[in-house]
Design a protein that fits this description.
Pfam families: Metallophos. By secondary structure, the chain is of the alpha/beta class. 27% of the residues lie in helices and 17% in strands. The protein is built from 6 helices and 9 strands; from the N terminus they run αβαβαααββαβββββ. Strands 3-4-7-9-8 form a 5-stranded mixed sheet, with no helix packed on it. A hairpin with a 5-residue loop joins strand 5 and strand 6. Helix 2 packs across helix 5 (92-102) and helix 3 (57-66) crosses helix 5. The protein is globular and about 55 Å long. The mean pLDDT is 93.
Length: 217
C-alpha cells in the first residue's frame, strides 16, 4: 500500500519495486517534478495486473480537466497538464483519463478500508459512485475527509476527525490526503469504537517523504 505520491516519481519507483500487489491511495499527480512519469508507472502496473489506485481529489480534478471542464486556476494542475502534452506523451492523456474514470473512491477488503480522504460507515455497504460523476456526500468524504465548512489561515478547508470514532472495532482505515506526520512515519489514531486510522500522506512531492506499508492480506 502506497500513500500520496504527488509527482515524486523517484520515490514511487522505489515503493513499487516489489512483487506485491500495489494499492495506491490517490493523489498521484500535482506538485512534484514528474506527474506524467508517476501516471505512466501506475498505468503500467494496472496493465500488468500488479496494482490499482484509489481516486484522490487531485486525480479527479485532473480527470475533469481532461474531459474539457473549465476549472478555476490551479498552477499545480496546469503544470501536470503541460507535462501530459506533446508528442513524447502520446496516448498518456487518454490512458490517464480512462484510468481515473474507472478508479474506485474506496475499497473494503476484509477488515481493511482503503480511501483517500476519510471514512464513513456507509462505505461498508455501498459501492463507490462514478469517479467523474456528480459529487455525492460519500464521494466528498472519500476525497476530502470531514470538513467543517470553514477555511484555515493557510487557505485549506478546516477538517475534523470525528469519523475515526465510527470505524468498526478491529477495522483499519488506510488513508492519505491530510499530512499529519512530519517525522517520516505514518500517523496512527485509534477511535472510540475500537477501529484505527493510519494516515500515510508524508508530504511526497512537497518536500516530504513517500510512505508505503507491506500488508498481509
Amino acid at each position: 500500500m502506497v500513500g500520496d505520491v504527488h509527482g515524486d516519481l523517484t520515490a514511487f519507483e522505489h515503493a513499487v519495486a516489489t512483487d506485491r500487489f500495489i494499492i495506491q491511495l490517490g493523489d498521484l499527480v500535482d506538485h512534484g517534478p514528474d506527474s506524467a512519469g508517476t501516471l505512466r508507472l501506475m498505468l503500467d502496473l494496472i496493465d500488468d495486473g500488479r496494482g490499482l489506485f484509489i481516486l484522490g481529489n487531485h486525480d479527479r480534478k485532473l480527470g475533469r480537466a481532461l474531459e474539457g471542464r473549465r476549472l478555476r486556476r490551479d498552477p499545480p494542475l496546469e503544470e501536470t497538464l503541460r507535462q501530459l502534452s506533446g508528442p513524447v506523451q502520446a496516448g498518456l492523456r487518454e490512458r490517464a483519463y480512462e484510468a481515473i474514470a474507472e478508479a474506485p473512491a474506496w475499497i473494503v477488503q476484509g477488515n481493511m478500508i482503503f480511501v483517500h480522504g476519510g471514512f464513513h460507515t456507509d462505505m461498508m455497504f455501498e459501492a463507490p459512485p462514478p469517479a467523474l460523476g456528480a459529487m455525492t456526500p460519500l464521494l466528498s468524504r472519500a476525497l476530502f475527509g470531514e470538513t467543517t465548512g470553514r477555511m484555515q489561515p493557510d487557505g485549506y478547508p478546516e477538517r475534523r476527525l470525528r469519523w475515526i470514532d465510527h470505524i468498526p472495532a478491529d477495522h483499519i482505515v488506510y488513508c492519505g490526503h491530510d499530512r499529519r506526520s512530519t517525522d517520516g512515519r505514518p500517523w496512527i489514531r485509534d477511535g472510540r469504537n475500537g477501529g484505527r486510522a493510519i494516515f500515510t500522506d508524508l508530504g511526497a512531492g512537497k518536500g516530504g517523504h513517500l510512505a508505503w506499508i507491506d500488508l498481509d492480506v
